[in-house]
Every structure is written in C-alpha cells, then in structure tokens.
Amino acid sequence: MPRFAVVLAAVAALVGGLAPAQADIVVTVDKSAQRLSVTVDGAPRYQWPVSTARMGYRTPNGSYKPQRLERKWFSRKYDWSPMPFSIFFNEGYAIHGSYEISHLGRPASHGCIRLHPNNAALLFALVKERVGDTTIVVTGDRPEPAARSRAREEDRDERLRVHRVRETAPRQQTSFGAAGSWHNSDSERQDPRGAPNFQSSFGDYRWR
Q1: Are 74 and 94 in contact (CB under 8 A)?
Q2: Which uninterrupted H or E stretch holds 48?
C-alpha cells in the first residue's frame, strides 16, 4: 500500500510538471476598442480605457516583454511631455500614465499607450513585482474615421435639435431691462426709438 501511494505521488508530480504554467501577467491592448485588460495567473484583474496612436502615428501590434520600467519619465522627442509610470516594451513605445484623461477611450497619442495616471500606477506596481512573468499583447486596428464622423454628426444633430426647440419656444412678454434696454426672452434687441415715455425722478424721458 505505501508503495502504491509513492507511485501516485510520483505520477501527480510528473503531470503537474507537464501542465502549462498559469503564473503570469498578460496585459492586452485592444486598439479597436481602445481598452487595456490585465489577466493575472489566468484570472481577469483590470480593464481600463486607453489612448493609442492617432492618425499619422502607429502603435505596433505584437507580443512583447517589458524592457524597462521608469517611474518618472519625460519624452525627449515630444516637448518633454510627462510619462509617469512608464513600462517600455518596444524601444521607445511604452504604456504610461497621461494627464490628458479627457482623451482616453479614443486614439490620441504619438504611438504610446496612455492610461489614467492612477491606473498606470497600479499596473506599474503589479508588473514591477513580476517583470519576467509579464507579457504585453497589442492587437486590433485604429477605430475607423467613419465611426468618429458618425459620432460627430450625431452630436451636431443633437445641438441642432436643441436649437430648434429653443427657437420654437413661446416668447415672454416684452419688458424693460435693468440696464435700460428693451429685450424679450430670446435676448433679441429691439429698436428703442419706438419705446413709450415713462416717468422718472428726472422728469419725462424719451429714447433718442
């Protein structure tokens, strides 16, 4: 019986050695969705919006290993722009924090992968502990300009709709403003020469 137990243990150890290792970090950047996801030991951990290369620049696709990490870095090529928590993976390309957070979720960079600084700090700390176990995968394509054009058209249509609603709204009764000008609810100035006389402490007054 003890010999059988030893055999079972040896077989389990052999099978375990042949099983694929899951102890790794995979950082996947989907340019089509402008999203970055992080998987740790096979389990999803994070998902954040990013900005990859805008028109005229490129973020290269491929599978990479981190080359170096820089907690504080400034771009010598692009006017010393701050690149906090940089994880360089292909020469000058890096995943890093960006203070232009209003652009996250759409292409905006010169080629790097921009993250919110808080998210970049989390990713930096995670990768720093396990640089050798980290893989960076960049996939997808820049979102089609047509999709961005449709978004702009929808925004323009909404502004026009709001403008038409304001134009057709009922006007309020004309009144005399505190600054001495005649106006209505649309702030359209009228010719004051047709305004009636009114009494004041200085006597009768008429617009001239």
Answers
A1: no
A2: strand 43-49
End-to-end CA distance of the chain: 118
50-100: pLDDT as tens digits: 999 999 999 999 999 999 999 998 988 777 789 999 999 998 899 999 999
Domains of the chain: which residue ranges? 20-147
Whether this model's pTM surpasses 0.85 = no
Question: Rounded to an integer, what distance in angstroms lies between the CA atom of residue 115 and that of residue 49?
Answer: 7
CA gap 153, 7 in Å, rounded = 70
CB neighbour class for 135 (10 Å; exposed up to 12, middle 13-18, buried from 19): middle
List the CATH code of the domain at 20-147: 2.40.440.10
Q: Is 162 exposed, middle or buried (0-12, 13-18, 19+ CB in 10 A)?
A: exposed
C-alpha dihedral, 114 to 118 to 121 to 123, nearest 10°:
-70
